[in-house]
Structures are given as structure tokens and as C-alpha cells.
Design brief:
With 284 residues, the protein is mainly alpha-helical. The protein folds into two domains: 121 residues, no CATH class; 142 residues, no CATH class. The protein is 75% helix and 0% strand. The chain has ten helices and no strands. It starts with a helix and ends in a 5-residue tail after the last helix.
Length: 284
Amino acid sequence: MMKNFLQRLWTSFIILGMFIFLFAISDFSPFFEISVAILICLCLYEALTCTGCATQKKLLIPCLIYGAAVPLSFIAKDWLFPGRSPYYGVIIASFIFLLTLFVILMANFEATKFSEATIAMFVTFVITCFLTNIIFIRRIENHGFFYMVLCIVCSAWCTDIFAYLVGILIGKHRPFPNISPKKSIEGCIGGALCSIVVYFIACRIYQGIAGVEFNWLLVLLYSLCCTVISQIGDLSFSYIKRSYGIKDFGKVLPGHGGFLDRLDSLIFIAPMFYALINTESFIG
């Protein structure tokens, strides 16, 4: 157990370093959007392989193209759609993607089942559109980098790491034996509390560095919402894995599984965090 935890911890640090590097250079090049596009495609491939849709190349290829096109549309919008909403490219890409899937279904009526196309469509929309929100968060004026740290490090990774550690140490009550056998109530509560504490520490450090003021009640509310959503996201993708009889989406990340195993909670956190911050920021 502890060996697996250390593996997860070291892998998290490595991935964290990569993300921080991408955030740091994102103001100077489109490399961040390109990296997000690659990451989405990797997650899509793992999810579509799990559900069996990857064997249908006619479904897999349009899904991967759409997964790359959405984040990349924010790079090309200035010369492809000058003066348009930043979401205009997403709307165009989504329409073409849906149209393509239905053309494929009609052209391969007997070979491709509607249920397979529906699963592929659902998985692709959820992963692509939800995960693309990290680009929106990074582009928030003045504090985008800090918001990304809160969203990814404090909400997603701290919740996961501390929930796992507390579950190992004192976890006894396991309410989801068929979905996530190792997840305990004690681990969920411990992960949430530790995540909130790290949230406050990060905000206090940023307050000292940037000289900004915080609405601490909103910090508490947002951190609580994010840590709860993080665990719901983790359980949701665990449900998908168990439904298809697999333990992990992949094996490329030691102690974690695949990219989707590492980013499952972030897929849920990113759109909610972006919505909360745009409703009312806790930075004055």
C-alpha cells in the first residue's frame, strides 16, 4: 500500500512540474493549447478503448480530431474567425463532429451500432468540452495562473493524494465496494479537509506575494465545492471502468494507470471552478 502511495506521489510531482512549466510559458506561445489538445486526445483514446469504440476506426478518428480541434480553435480564432466569440470555433467543430458521426452511421448502417456511436459521442463531448475549461481558466486576466494552481493542485491532486493516504491509515467504512473498493468515508473526509487547508495556505501565500485581498468565506465555499466535485468525478470514472471490467484506463503512469485515471476528477472540477470564478471571484 505505502509503496503504491509513494509511486503515486512521485508521479504526481513529475506531472505537476510539467503542468507548471506549461502554465509558465502559456503567455508566450500556443504550446499550452497544443499540449491540452494532445492530453485530451490521450484521454479520449483511453476512454474509447475502454468502451470498445476504439476498434471502430470510423468512430475513433472523428472523435480524436474533434478532441484536438476544440482546444486548437482558440489559437486559430483570430485569423479564422476575426471579431467572433472565442466559442465560435467550438460551435463549428461540434456541428461538424455530430454531422460526421451521423454520416458514418448512415453509411455503415449494419456495421456500426447507434449505441456505440452514442457512447463515443458522450465520452468525447464530456472529456473534450469539460477539460478545455482549463484553457479558459488560464486565460482569466491577472490571476489565471494562480487559479490553475488552485484548480489542479489544491482541488484535484491534493484531494486524491490525501484521500488515498488517510484511507490507507484509518479507512474502515467503504461505501462503494463495487465501484471503488479502496475508497473509504474516512479517506473522503480526510482528503476534503486537507484539500481545504492547502487551499487556504496557497491563498495566504499568494496574498503575500501579489498583495491582493481575499474573500475568505468564498475561498472556503469554493474549495469545499471543488473537493466534493473532485471525488464525484473520480467515482464517476471508476463507475465507467467497473462497468467494463477494468481496473485502470491505462498503464503509462506508475501508481496511477493512464492519463484519464489521473485527470478524471479535473474533468469535473474545471468547468465548475470556471463557472464559480466567473460568477464572483474571491480575489478582491
